[in-house]
């Protein structure tokens, strides 16, 4: 570790990348969240933290070092906060700044779990509270979602998508309204910058769960944050002689201690339609049903001369060295007694596994499939089996789905089969755990490289009109043409079971479409008010965690492309499709009571205009092609399903004139501009537009 740290630091120094050298690096980090597991290591953990800190400081990066979630970080290392909220965090020394190194925008996805998301109102509240209470540095985790290509996903059972409900999604598209609301939040905080760096905040109680933090530059020159940290009741507070309405679980920002330019609960940024990147309105789908499919049936059990034997059950990770997800455990079961012709002996088979999944074959026929979950990857598989007189084969294919990558002692947590027991009709048991077992690392298709382009025309592939479907352990191959355009591409694998996929020899990851999340625990809307955790806001209950898989455009050729699939459980590849996004539905809903845009606020001058605006913007390279809905008055509904209210003015022509053919546009929320369909009624403007490239 010492050599590794020195190597990285010297690489940075050689390129003049540290701030003291004129470069962009202002901070260094050693270790990550070790404090969460340190108690498990006793005095060794304490000594290790001290050693790691001393080793880092000796490298003399000339910029500060931090340790994330490390309350006992020795001076001068700065201990920082990771979590959903860090406003109540204090570093372990008054000489250290209050820093938030990981603010979770959402949470990771696991096969078999519902999809977690975090409302932007809560996320913005957490950030505003942090800076309100003296925070100096805040970093989003993740700001740009990603993809765990290949076998790089953590585990156990962490999905291929690492979208994380981030402001920029897995495909590189802006996720609205999260991105826009956070942009406005930081513009508002930026307006307070000179005050935030000039003094520490003065806390003022304004009532039950109501308070202000004021930053003074002089006795009559200040910026303030007004907070309602109660989760149920809205409130009205008196501050500096003025009244301010504070929704529950919200913060208002006053850069001049008088005018509110932003409230975390009032979202005026645009929204994109639908939860998914690819919706029926905006996607172009290309079926692979007409493709010429080829297949190769994987051999069950031992397939090569590089197998080996042991008279015990071996732990999987130490056996495979993580070169593959698969390990075959094979043995024979001898039935001495004579059995009548065409009859079999019924037995019970009990298999215990440390994880993560396993296929069980008796006499080369599939008899069972067992699996764990993200929280507990271990499982016990109980099956009734039928044996013939004489020798019978038992083949167990144990599967990994990501290596454990967090928690104490994760480096020695094992996987694979640890117990195999036969139970007879009279409840007598036969323990096969110490029998003679033959092992084979990996699958034959992996060994010969069926995922490689070089084997695309190999005779090992079978081609015909009668493609086998819904079979376990089978490889499929097809040639497809890349969708038109330059945008990212998604592979819809909802018709498949569990396996891995390659495009032009590049692995796009593991899939498991048939592992459905629990049917309960989700809601159409999640109340942002109150403390958030990873299980609070869930969607897609009773569905697969992931069915769409990201294919980076630069992995595709302009002509023919090779798709290879290893299907482990059974699926129908003829129903696979390619999706690409050729349009985008964007929406806005802004009321007369909303604030003017934050970027129109100027110090000493205030808002350039007191009129709120509804702003729309397409992704770069796209323009607004159509206005699908436009109503000023009391419109209802939501993006994708707006409806006219009892008070309605059709403002489509006004919006079309302002927006059609433009990448971005703005419409003032003004009766002077839009007319007044109902006097003395609070009104709002709702617009739904279509962007295309």
Automatic annotation (TrEMBL):
Gene Ontology MF term list: beta-galactosidase activity; carbohydrate binding
Pfam family, one: BetaGal_gal-bd
Keyword Hydrolase in annotation: yes
Gene3D superfamilies given in the database record: 2.60.120.740, Galactose-binding domain-like, Glycosidases
Enzyme class, spelled out: hydrolase
Keywords: Glycosidase, Hydrolase, Signal
InterPro entries: BetaGal_gal-bd, Galactose-bd-like_sf, GH, GHD, Gly_Hdrlase_35_cat, Glyco_hydro_35_CS, Glycoside_Hdrlase_35, Lectin_gal-bd_dom
Superkingdom of this protein's organism: Eukaryota
Residue span, SUEL-type lectin domain: 608-692
Protein name (database record): Beta-galactosidase
Organism: Olea europaea subsp. europaea
Source lineage: Eukaryota, Viridiplantae, Streptophyta, Embryophyta, Tracheophyta
């Amino acid at each position: 570790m010492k050599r590794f740290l020195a190597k990285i630091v010297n690489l940075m120094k050689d390129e003049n990348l540290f701030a003291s050298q004129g470069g962009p690096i202002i901070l260094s980090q050693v270790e990550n969240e070790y404090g969460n597991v340190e108690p498990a290591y006793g005095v060794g953990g304490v000594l290790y933290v001290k050693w790691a800190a001393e080793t880092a400081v000796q490298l003399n990066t000339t910029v500060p070092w931090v340790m994330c979630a490390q309350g006992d970080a020795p001076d001068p290392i700065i201990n920082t906060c990771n979590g959903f909220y860090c406003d109540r965090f204090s570093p372990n020394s008054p000489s250290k700044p209050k820093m938030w190194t990981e603010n979770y925008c959402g949470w990771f996805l696991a096969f078999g779990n519902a999809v977690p998301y975090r409302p932007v109102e809560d996320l913005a509240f957490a950030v505003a509270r942090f800076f309100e209470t003296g925070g100096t540095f805040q970093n989003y985790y993740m700001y740009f979602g990603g993809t765990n290509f290949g076998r790089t996903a953590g585990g156990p059972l962490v999905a291929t998508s690492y979208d994380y409900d981030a402001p920029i999604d897995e495909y590189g598209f802006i996720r609205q309204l999260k991105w826009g609301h956070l942009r406005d939040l930081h513009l508002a905080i930026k307006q307070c910058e000179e005050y935030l760096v000039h003094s520490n905040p003065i806390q003022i109680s304004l009532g039950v769960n109501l308070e202000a933090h004021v930053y003074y530059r002089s006795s009559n020159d200040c910026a303030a944050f007004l907070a309602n940290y109660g989760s149920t009741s809205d409130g009205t507070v008196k501050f500096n002689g003025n009244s301010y309405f504070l929704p529950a679980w919200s913060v208002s920002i006053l850069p001049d201690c008088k005018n509110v330019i932003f409230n975390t609960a009032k979202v005026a940024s645009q929204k994109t339609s639908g939860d998914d990147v690819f919706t029926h309105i905006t996607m172009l789908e290309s079926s692979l049903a007409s493709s010429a499919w080829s297949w190769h049936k994987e051999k069950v059990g031992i397939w090569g001369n590089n197998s080996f034997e042991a008279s015990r059950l071996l732990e999987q990770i130490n056996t495979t060295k993580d070169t593959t997800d698969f390990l075959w455990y094979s043995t024979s079961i001898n039935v001495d007694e004579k059995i009548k012709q065409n009859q079999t002996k019924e037995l019970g088979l009990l298999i215990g596994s440390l994880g993560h999944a396993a296929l069980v074959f008796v006499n080369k026929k599939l008899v069972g499939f067992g699996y764990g979950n993200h929280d507990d990857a271990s499982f016990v598989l109980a099956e009734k089996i039928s044996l013939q007189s004489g020798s019978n084969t038992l083949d167990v294919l144990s599967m990994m789905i990501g290596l454990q990558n967090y928690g104490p002692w994760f480096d020695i947590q094992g996987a694979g089969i640890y117990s195999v027991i036969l139970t007879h009709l009279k409840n007598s048991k036969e323990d096969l755990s110490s029998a003679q077992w033959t092992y084979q690392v990996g699958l034959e298709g992996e060994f010969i490289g069926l995922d490689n382009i070089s084997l695309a025309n190999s005779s090992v592939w079978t081609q015909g009109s009668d493609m086998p479907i819904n079979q376990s352990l089978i490889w499929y191959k097809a040639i497809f043409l890349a969708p038109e355009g330059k945008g990212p591409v998604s592979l819809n694998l909802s018709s498949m079971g569990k396996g891995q996929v390659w495009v032009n020899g590049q692995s796009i990851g593991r899939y498991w479409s048939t592992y459905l999340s629990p049917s309960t625990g989700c809601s159409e809307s999640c109340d942002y008010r109150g403390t958030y955790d990873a299980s609070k806001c869930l969607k897609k209950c009773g569905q697969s965690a992931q069915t769409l898989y990201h294919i980076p455009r630069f992995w595709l050729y302009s002509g023919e492309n090779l798709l290879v699939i290893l299907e482990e459980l059974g699926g129908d590849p003829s129903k696979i499709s390619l999706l690409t996004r050729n349009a985008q539905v964007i929406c806005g809903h802004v009321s007369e009571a909303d604030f003017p845009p934050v970027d129109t606020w100027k110090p000493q001058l205030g808002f350039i205009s007191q009129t709120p605006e509804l702003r729309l913007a397409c992704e770069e390279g796209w323009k607004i092609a159509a206005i699908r809905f436009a109503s000023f008055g009391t419109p209802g509904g939501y993006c994708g399903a707006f409806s006219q209210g009892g008070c309605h003015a059709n403002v489509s022509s006004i919006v079309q004139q302002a927006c059609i053919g433009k990448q971005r546009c703005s419409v003032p929320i003004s009766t002077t501009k839009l007319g007044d369909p109902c006097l003395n009624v609070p009104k709002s403007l709702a617009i739904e537009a279509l962007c295309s490239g």
